[in-house]
Write a structure and sequence with these properties.
This protein is α/β, with parallel strands linked by helices and about 350 residues long. It has one domain: Alpha-Beta Barrel (TIM Barrel). The protein is about 35% helix and about 20% strand. It is built from twelve helices and 13 strands. Strands 2-3-4-5-6-7-8-9 form an eight-stranded parallel beta sheet. Strands 1-10-13 form a three-stranded antiparallel beta sheet, covered by helices on one side. It has a two-stranded antiparallel sheet with strand order 11-12. Strand 3, helix 2 and strand 4 form a beta-alpha-beta unit. Helix 6 runs parallel beside helix 9. The chain is globular and about 50 Å long. The structure holds N-carbamoyl-L-aspartate and zinc ion (2 copies). One zinc ion binds next to loops.
Length: about 350
């Protein structure tokens, strides 16, 4: 049995840089037409110069036969220069700006401390139609890790939407029932990405039996009831939910450590995970919209012309693969005991 869909886009990915970028990029560029590249490098992409240099670096590593277009984002800081932002957007160097509240996730230290300090930036983004993408969590001492997303909605999202009702926002990697319900209740200017791992797992998968560092990410995996709410989101009629893998590799010595880093490297099997979840929910007819149409429409981009094909085959991605980066560093894509039902038919060159 075959399943053919329009070539998907990944609207949330961490491609990293240098040797890691070179190694992991083909896993994305062979399956996806475009990807929205997150700007949280060790030296974040805080201006258009950094964004063009980074884009060039990415493009230099795209395998010749892959037709792939990286879409860049700008990392918002409280010192962001308005003219640079407008020029960079109008010259299509980046298509969105990413807001991290400081100290919420990997390389967010240089993010926003007080979002009211960037109201003048949000004002201009609203005016020029530039999308704001947000890591939707606040992490403060009083807030439980499971409530970071809800706290963000209350303390940041609602005030921003109230002050800038015409600003288009993407609520990235939503993980809770509260966020699903919030997005559905809002208007056409609020979209959200959903990762394959938040659809497939909950915190029991990460914590019960043996601890699984490869399932550790931000936002942290939540309860079953939150996972089911995400299933409801992709099963329903709201066309503002779309694909964002949040594939975020960390080298093994940082991942499998007494102080392990958050981030799941899922791009080698992300589409197969999504297809399996949609199949298990009996909603394969909605897979193409989620993977290839809703996001492009939200970002006002043309729909990809090419297609990809899946074939029905059961497999268990339970073997840990080791990808060598250099003599001291290795990466492993996500692996687990659950079965996947669909495999991608790779193009033969
Ligand atoms: N998702 C993660 O757990 N980590 C991401 C950052 C992010 O998307 O928050 C990373 O860059 O490592
Ligand atoms: Zn994030
Ligand atoms: Zn991310």
């Amino acid at each position: 049995m075959l399943l053919k869909i329009i070539k998907p886009d990944d609207f949330h990915i961490h491609l990293r840089e240098k040797e890691i970028l070179k190694k992991i990029l083909p896993y994305t560029s062979q399956f996806f037409g475009r990807a929205l590249v997150m700007p949280n490098l060790n030296q974040p992409i805080i201006n258009s110069h950094f964004a063009s240099v980074y884009k060039k670096e990415i493009c230099s590593f795209i395998p010749k036969l892959h037709k792939f277009n990286p879409l860049m984002t700008l990392y918002l800081t409280e010192n962001c220069d308005k003219k640079m932002l407008v020029d960079g957007f109008l010259n299509k160097i980046f298509i969105a700006a990413k807001m991290y509240i400081s100290n919420t996730t990997t390389n967010s230290e240089k993010g926003i401390k007080n979002f009211e300090n960037i109201f003048h930036i949000l004002e201009i983004m609203q005016k020029i139609g530039m999308i704001l993408s947000v890591h939707g969590e606040i992490s403060d001492e009083k807030t439980d890790i499971f409530d970071r997303e809800a706290k963000f909605i209350e303390k940041v999202m609602i005030p921003i939407r109230k002050n800038f009702p015409k600003l288009k926002i993407v609520f990235e990697h939503i993980s809770t029932k509260i966020a699903v319900e919030y997005v559905i209740s809002e208007d056409s200017l609020l979209g959200a990405t959903i990762t394959p791992h938040h659809l497939m797992f909950n915190y029991n998968d990460m914590l019960s039996n043996k601890i699984k560092p490869h399932l550790y990410c931000f936002p942290i995996l939540k309860k079953k009831i939150d996972q089911f709410a995400l299933h409801k989101a992709i099963s329903g009629n709201c066309n503002r939910f779309f694909l964002g893998t949040d594939s975020a590799p960390h080298v093994l010595k940082n991942k499998e450590s007494s102080m392990g880093f958050a981030g799941i490297f899922n791009s080698p099997i992300a589409l197969e995970m999504y297809a399996t979840v949609f199949d298990n929910l009996n909603i394969l007819n909605k897979l193409e919209n989620f993977c290839s149409i809703n996001g492009a429409n939200f970002y006002n981009l043309p729909i990809n012309k090419e297609h990809i094909t899946f074939f029905k085959e059961t497999f268990y991605p339970n073997k840990k693969q080791i990808i060598k980066i250099n003599k001291n560093n290795y990466l492993s894509p996500i692996f687990f005991e659950k079965k996947l039902n669909w495999k991608i038919k790779l193009k033969e060159y």
